[in-house]
Write a structure and sequence with these properties.
mainly beta; Jelly Rolls; four-stranded antiparallel beta sheet
Length: 140
């Protein structure tokens, strides 16, 4: 139940929301967010990178941290840094962390979709997305 200020006074079970395609490319399914439960500083949901070259577009969240847990998938490349010069490989069971203000791209070149559970310190998830088309060609 919400209080007079709109904040919840009890916990709740949240059903997955309707999937949508984010500005940065992949499909997102919201769970906990400003829209679903009135969250003020947290977005939690799932993200799927399709098989065979599925990727995000180059982007940044200027004031929000992001974290992901790779639930399933073979291998995902995480490109980060001012010029997307840093590359790491993630496998199922790995966690990914992207600090606020750090440009990033995730790429799935395998034949298996990559499914993540993700969290961001932005309850409105898409509002903080700043696209970086100037970096798009830096990731092969």
């Amino acid at each position: 139940m919400p209080r007079m200020d709109g904040r919840a006074t009890v916990g709740s079970v949240v059903r997955a929301g309707t999937a949508y395609q984010g500005k940065q490319g992949p499909e997102y399914v919201p769970g906990v967010s400003a829209e679903t439960v009135g969250a003020r500083a947290l977005w939690l949901g799932s993200v799927t990178l399709p098989a065979g070259g599925g990727r995000t577009k180059a982007h940044v969240h200027d004031h929000h941290e992001s974290a992901f847990y790779l639930v399933s998938g073979d291998e995902v490349e995480l490109w980060t840094g001012d010029h997307l010069q840093h590359r790491e490989l993630a496998h199922a069971g790995d966690y990914l962390y992207i600090p606020a203000g750090v440009p990033h791209v995730a790429v799935n070149r395998t034949d298996t979709p990559a499914v993540f559970v993700g969290a961001r310190t932005d309850a409105n998830e898409q509002e903080s997305v700043v696209m970086r088309p100037d970096l798009e060609n830096r990731v092969p």
